[in-house]
Structure formats: C-alpha cells, structure tokens
Design goal:
There is one protein chain. With 480 residues, the protein is α/β, with parallel strands linked by helices. It has two domains: 2-161 and 244-269, Ribokinase (UDP-N-acetylmuramoyl-L-alanine:D-glutamate ligase); 283-470. Helix content is 50%, strand content 15%. It contains 18 helices and 13 strands. It has a nine-stranded mixed sheet, with helices on both faces. Strands 3-2-6-7 form a four-stranded mixed sheet. Helix 5 crosses helix 6, helix 9 (282-299) packs antiparallel against helix 12 (329-356) and helix 12 (329-356) packs antiparallel against helix 14 (379-398). The longest helix has 28 residues, at 253-280. The radius of gyration is 27 Å and the shape is globular.
Length: 480
C-alpha cells in the first residue's frame, strides 16, 4: 500500500548560532534591523516536507510515493530517493530553475530564523495525482507551492483517495474560504497549536465545530513536547508526548510526526479493510488469519535482529530491526516459499468452507455456528487436520532456519535441513513449543491484534534463544 506524499523537496542549509537571538535583536530597533550572526557550524541536508516525511515513513516500513518538483540541481536528491528503493515516477525535474532552498539559523534555545527560496516548488502543480494506480491508499497535502496544494487536494478528492491536509507553514497563503474547501475535501486535518489558532480564526469556527464537518474523521493538533490533541466529532482526546532522551536539532521534527501519523493511518486503513472483508467473506479471512501463523516466523525477522544485537551487547533499537529487512537473497527466497505456503492454505481453506459448509459463511458467528459447532458435520475437524498437515512441515522447516539465516552464512537448503534435524532430535519439546507459539499468537490476534504488540517480541526473543541453544554453529561464518 503506497502513500502519496504531495509536498516540497528542498536542500536545507542548517547553521547553529551558539548564542541567543534575543541578545542580538533589539525589539525597539526592528524597523532598522541590520544584524549578522556568526555561525561556526554548517551542514547541507536533503530536506523539504515531502522528502522528510518519505524518509520517516520509509524507516517505519511504509511505502512512500513522493509527488514533488526538483530543479536542475536535483540529481543527487533523486538518486537519494532511489537508494531507498522508492518509486520516483511522480517527481518532476524542472530544468529551468533551482531546487527549493532553505537556509536555517538555530540558536541555543532552539529558536530558528529561516529564509526560503521556492524554486522548482512553484512548478509542482504540473504534477498530477495518478488515477491508474490501485496501490495508493492514502495521501497527504503537505506544504508545497500554493497552486500545487489546491490542485492536488482536488485531485485526491476526485480520485476518492483519503488524505491528510497538513498545510504547515503554507497555511497563511490561504483565506478562510480556501481553507474551508481544503477541509471539506480532506479526511483528516493536522496542524500545530499556532496553525490551529490561525485556521479557526480565518474560518470563523472552533476546533470542536471544525471536527464535526462532514467526511472529516479527525483533527490533530500537535503541542510540541506536550504531545497532541485529537479532535473527533467535537470531542478532544489528549495524547501525551514521548520524552526525548536528547534534543539534537528540531529541524524536521514536524515531518517526522507526519510520517508516523501516515504510518499509523495506513495500518488503521488496513484493519478497516480486514473488517470489511470479514463482514462479507469471512470464509476467506479465516484462512488468511490462520495462514498468518505460517508466515509469522519471517515477519519476526526484525525482532530476531534485535535479540541478536542484545546478545552481542550492541545497540538494539528500531533501526536495527528495520535494517534486518533490507533486500537479502536468502531471506527473500525463504519468504517466497512461506508466502506460497500461506497463499496455498488461504485458497485451500476458502475452497473447503465454501464447497462443503452446510450454509453460507459470511461472518464470525456463521463460522462458529456452521463450521465449529455443527454436530452433523466433521468439516471443522477436517479443516483443522488439513491446516495441521500444512503447518507441521512449515514449522519444522522454519523454526530455527530464519534465525540461522540471519546469523550465519548458510544456504536456504542447509538452514531448512538444520531446522528439520532440530525438530527430529527434540520432538516433544518442539511440539510443545509449536503449541505455545500457536496459542499465544491466536490470543494476540483475538485481541484485535493489540496483544501481538506484547506477545510478538517475547516469542521472537524466546525463539532466538531456542536457536542459539539448539543449533551448533561451529564452523559457520558469522554475518556482521
């Protein structure tokens, strides 16, 4: 599922002033202001709202699709996006101008003075929201050229793609009527507290009234370190902020929040899609949920990497988990095999239930009544037996194979054979472990997937140590 990010791509020149602006600027002399700041440090970064949001969303495992404009100096930026594996087909290269440039001075109190040259951003309206792609499930209107923000919002609305309207520093470009048009087309609105005050003042409304507008699912107001307020249908819920270990640089923090927001909304839309499927085609969803157990070992790859780092007394954080998902031939082959097994079970389950159930199965209650509790049919027992028949070899092939592939330089076949030998050498403990894995995973899924947040890391950590205890890795080259 791709997220279309409509916003700016820019080069940021960031400098740090070791003093305070308030000591250099005299309030009673601003009408003749002429100041200079000595900035000992300077760095040039890839910035712009679209680029920053895409970076954050990419780190979280999302699929950003950037729609923006670069100038004749934007080759390096385009190459950077491609190194992340991103689709750059919606990035316009304008040869007649420079890429947008942002010059920032930050003082020791994290106050900032910014000069911005829009450059190619003023041509971003020449990009058009693609209507021939079925993979775009969400969008965002971030700060961009005025014409681009207006046209892209209208195009997203016409394409029925839900989107976040987050005008940021571009909000002052629009009057009340224009802001109202954005809100009426958007699915969510996101602003900081200063922008929220300007938004409701220009529209002549309140946040409570704004959140009650038709088709608007929520208004998010960020409050810096204090977290954010979420307004839904006139009701406000405060979400506390996460305490930072150290504040290094505030530049781009708002875009990092936008990336996280899009990632959360994408997962929510995926959950809503599952619910929609469950309402009409539970016979298919039942196979998909149980098939999840087959591919769960591969999904835990990032958690195995964290356990490996902890064992080595190395840094163990989100970046370590995400790095484990980098394209790697052996894991990709193993993943394809598991995906094939999972798909096979989904189709087998669907065929079995639709072909032999005594009545149509459209929802969980139908499944319980027609399949599970039907005294006149052995369909449930057959369904379980067929699932076990497929799950047993998959479990035996993967229980230690994926940690082994992550840890040592071995081939897929050698890893699978090692996993089988471990199961054959310890049949009873491995059978009990399989039952525990299945039971706890089902428990986590029964809590609307919330329980998996706690259960999955625990199971992955235990599985890693099971691999370390059961597999003799002597003579196998260790991966870095």
């Amino acid at each position: 599922m791709s997220v279309l990010i409509c916003g700016s791509l820019a080069f940021d020149t960031i400098t740090n002033f070791p003093g305070q602006f308030s000591q250099q600027i005299m309030p009673d002399k601003v009408h003749i202001l002429n100041v200079s700041f000595l900035v000992p440090t300077m760095r040039r970064e890839f910035g712009g709202c679209a680029g920053n949001i895409a970076y954050s969303l990419h780190l979280l495992g999302g699929q950003p699709l950037v729609m923006a404009a670069l100038g004749n100096d934007g080759g390096d930026y385009l190459a950077r996006l491609k190194t992340w594996g991103l689709d750059t087909s919606q990035v316009l290269l304008a040869q007649e101008t420079y890429t947008a440039q942002c010059m920032i001075i930050t003082d020791q109190d994290n106050n900032q003075i910014t000069a911005f040259h829009p450059g190619a951003m003023q041509l971003a309206h020449n990009t058009v929201v693609p209507t021939d792609r079925g993979d775009i499930t969400l969008g965002i209107i971030a700060p961009d050229g005025r014409d681009a923000m207006i046209s892209h919002a209208a195009q997203l609305h016409a394409a029925k793609i839900p989107f976040v309207f987050d005008p940021g520093q571009g909000l002052p470009m629009f009057n009340g009527d224009e802001l109202g048009a954005f809100v009426d087309q958007a699915t969510w609105v996101a602003v900081n507290d200063y922008e929220a005050a300007m938004l409701v003042e220009r529209m002549g409304t309140t946040l409570a009234k704004l959140s009650r507008r038709p088709h608007l699912q929520g208004v998010i107001v960020t409050l810096g370190a204090e977290g954010c307020d979420v307004w839904i249908q006139g009701e406000c819920t405060h979400v506390p902020g996460v305490q930072a270990e150290a504040v290094v640089d505030p530049t781009g923090c708002g875009d990092a929040f936008r990336g996280a927001l899009l990632h959360g909304l994408t997962l929510a839309l995926f959950g809503a899609a599952l619910v929609a499927v469950a309402r009409e085609r539970f016979w298919l969803l039942s196979g998909a949920f149980t098939g999840f157990l087959l591919v769960a070992p591969l999904l835990a790859t990032g958690l195995y990497a964290v356990s490996r780092a902890l064992e080595r007394r190395q840094r163990a954080d989100l970046s370590v988990a995400l790095a484990a998902w980098k394209p790697e031939g052996r894991l990709m082959v193993f993943g394809l095999l598991l995906a094939f097994a999972g798909t096979g079970w989904v189709m087998t389950s669907a065929s079995l239930i639709t072909g032999f159930a005594a009545a149509p199965v459209r929802n969980p209650m139908d499944f319980l009544r027609v399949v599970v509790l039907n005294d006149h049919s052995h369909l449930f027992e057959i369904w379980l037996a067929m699932g076990a028949l497929l799950a047993a070899p998959v479990y035996a092939s993967s229980v230690v194979a994926i940690p082994l592939l992550l840890d040592r330089q071995v081939g897929v076949l050698a890893a699978v054979l090692t996993s089988w030998r471990v199961v054959q050498a310890h049949p009873l403990p491995m059978a009990l472990w399989a039952a525990l894995l299945m039971g706890l995973t089902v428990l986590g899924m029964a809590t609307a997937l919330v329980g998996l947040v706690v259960i999955a890391p625990w199971l992955a950590h235990a599985s890693w140590h099971a691999y370390r205890d059961l597999v003799n890795t002597a003579g196998l080259d260790e991966l870095p």
